[in-house]
């Protein structure tokens, strides 16, 4: 065998003869995990769910669809502090992104339901969101040949409330945003992040952010009190019923001001932040977290590094960066 010079460039072995061979890097062993591949799902149910996601007939006055508040072309939410319900009035909580919601252990800020199907059920009948009822929704959809045919292809029993909820949940399971630069890093492409972004990730771990923002969705898998190290609500003022969080579900005093920890995936594009939309920028949100959740005062450099890291969590939808 002839002598050929071999050297490494990025994730390739490059031979002196000009041949580049991919180098298979091992995934990193980290507490944070890359997004899984989208599951193989029934295409008829996925397509039906997509149509229903964009269907305003789910609301009582045919004005509001899921897509009205969950903009898939941008953040999976909207840019309002509080989305508008069917009556044009703002709801009481900031709308979370629908992207990667299937990976959360509970749904809604207060975690009152366990499944995407139940989340759909609640939103449709909510008096401040879609304001409808399931009997009316089924009647409206059953009257349209396009839905008669689509449901017949996907479900043996046709148009039912359970099937509407299942189709929407099936579609939402496809709404994952893979290929963030941080995911690529976790999968072994350690050169894709800058040194500052890597330092930011280390600071994220060192300061303890990772204690709550963990796992595959970098959050979304536990409850936490808002204001562990200080009274956030007293400092903010103007207390609201929605600030009570999970207490409204359980009536347990220990659940006062407790919320589902949000996912940090795509956090750079999902402003404003928190259930009350009080943080208008990512920088403000990081300041609040340090003060009221961690009780620590970082240097400006450390905050800047963490924000640089958080920006690496933005993934792709439909093959395009968010």
Automatic annotation (TrEMBL):
Keyword Iron (UniProt): yes
Alphabetical list of Gene3D superfamilies matching this protein: Cytochrome c-like domain
Any Pfam family the entry gives: CCP_MauG
Alphabetical list of InterPro entries matching this protein: Cyt_c-like_dom, Cyt_c-like_dom_sf, Cytochrome_c_Peroxidase/MauG, Di-haem_cyt_c_peroxidsae, MauG/Cytc_peroxidase
GO cellular component: periplasmic space
Name of the protein in its database record: Cytochrome c551 peroxidase
Enzyme Commission code: 1.11.1.5
Domain Cytochrome c as annotated: residue spans: 44-175, 195-314
Post-translational modification: Binds 2 heme groups per subunit.
Cofactor binding comment, as recorded: Binds 2 heme groups.
